[in-house]
Amino acid sequence: MKIEIAEHKKLAHSMELDVRWGDMDAMGHVNNAVYFRYMESVRVEWMRAVGCEPSPKGQGPVIVNAFCNFYRQLEYPARLLLKLYVSDPARTTFETWTTIERLDQPGVLAAAGGATVIWVDFPAQKAVPLPDWMRALVL
């Protein structure tokens, strides 16, 4: 299945990742929960690449919801291409979107999902406005 990412979503980061033997379940394909780990991996790698290193004594991102649509089964062995898109900065949140495809099947999505990120003051345990530097990255 081919899916186009809407124009308002901005490609922020991509990475390659290997399916590990332990990612599979008893049915012989990647367990659905592992797809969320894959999406987390590309999201965290992007945040680290842009200098977002949250501290429990400061501010940073928290995921408030996540979803994934599964189109094709993934199995070991496989090398994956994950692409992270960002969009829709609001006062305290922005959206992330991830596509997952096998490198040997370019353009054919195995899964696509996303997550809403909220910016939080960790000591106060409350949402705060997105910092200007993060807003600029998401616009």
UniProtKB/TrEMBL annotation:
Record-listed E.C. numbers: 3.1.2.-
Keywords: Hydrolase
PANTHER family per record: 4-HYDROXYBENZOYL-COA THIOESTERASE FAMILY MEMBER, NOVEL THIOESTERASE SUPERFAMILY DOMAIN AND SAPOSIN A-TYPE DOMAIN CONTAINING PROTEIN (0610012H03RIK)
Family: Belongs to the 4-hydroxybenzoyl-CoA thioesterase family.
Keyword Kinase attached: no
InterPro entries named among the record's database cross-references: 4-hydroxybenzoyl-CoA_TE, HotDog_dom_sf
Superkingdom of the source species: Bacteria
Keyword Ribonucleoprotein set for record: no
Origin species: Diaphorobacter limosus
SUPFAM superfamilies the record matches: Thioesterase/thiol ester dehydrase-isomerase
Broad class of enzyme this protein falls into: hydrolase
Name recorded for this polypeptide: Thioesterase family protein
